[in-house]
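Incident review: delayed structure delivery

Summary: a single-chain prediction request sat in the queue longer than the usual turnaround. Root cause was a stuck worker, restarted by the on-call engineer. No data loss occurred. The affected request and its eventual output are reproduced below so the record is complete for anyone auditing the incident later.

Affected input:
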Amino acid sequence: LKPCNSMVLLNQVFNWMTHHNISRNKIIHIDMNSVDTDFVSDQKILKRILINMVKNALEAIEIGEEVLLKSYIQEGRIIFSVNNPGFIHKDIQLQIFHRTFSTKGENRGLGTYSMKMHAEKYLNGRIYFFTSKENGTTFFCDLPLISVLERLKQKSS
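Output delivered after worker restart:
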């Protein structure tokens, strides 16, 4: 676990994904109300989770549609979210986090499973989503908000 910054992470993911083939003719934005805060986490794992969230969102939209990245603090936790305008039908919703499930063909299906596993096993967090025809689909990465000062205190104890 090392110090991270929410806006630095969002910008790194944004910059990485805007140059990815999957984002061609699609729009990626970072919500201007995103929180800019320092916290402690495993940046490499968290960045991988966020990239998977954005890739999935981009794969689910049409040319010209938008993916929105955001970070905010709620009840002592830092939450990263990725929204797209698509709706996930009920039969697919029930299978999203299954290890081999994919709507994108064979030899796929580890993305949402690995996001959930890594967030829960290594970051003490959770991955979940909400979907509706009105608001699209939003995936969330919800993590404990551990300050750099708290982490230093833990190390010295």
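Verification: Helices lie at 6-18, 43-59, 90-93, 111-122, 148-156.
Action items: add queue-age alerting; document worker restart procedure.
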